Structure formats: C-alpha cells, structure tokens
C-alpha cells in the first residue's frame, strides 16, 4: 500500500488535526510546563 505525505496531511485535515514538528531531544523544564498548561487549557 502506497502512502504519501500529502495523503497523511489530507487525513489529518479532515479529522481537524495538525502535525507539529518539534526539536529532537529532551525538552527543557519550561517546555514541559508549557505543554502541560496547553493540555489543561484543552480540557477546560
């Protein structure tokens, strides 16, 4: 089965999702805190 990046992005878009590119490696403490704050905002 052949899959392409554009197909993946089309499916993500249809589902209302996005793909985020992040730097490889362990996050800083402030990045971890910011991520958890984002998740708390989404739950509200």
Task: Label this structure with key terms.
57% helix; 44 residues; mainly alpha
Q: Can you put this structure into words, describing what you see?
A:
There is one protein chain. This protein is 57% helix and 0% strand. The chain has two helices and no strands. The model has no long low-confidence stretch (mean pLDDT 84).
Largest sheet, described in full? none
Distance between the termini: 40 Å
**Helix count, DSSP H or I runs of 4 or more residues:** 2
Shape descriptor reads elongated
Structural class by helix and strand composition: mainly alpha
Helix and strand pattern? HH
Number of strands: 0
Helix proportion: 55-70%
Cα-atom radius of gyration: 15 Å
What is the typical, i.e. mean, pLDDT?
84
What percentage of amino acids are in beta strands? under 5%
Low-confidence stretches: none
Kindly summarize this structure in a few lines.
The chain is mainly α and 44 residues long.
SSE arrangement:
Elements: H1 5-14, H2 29-43
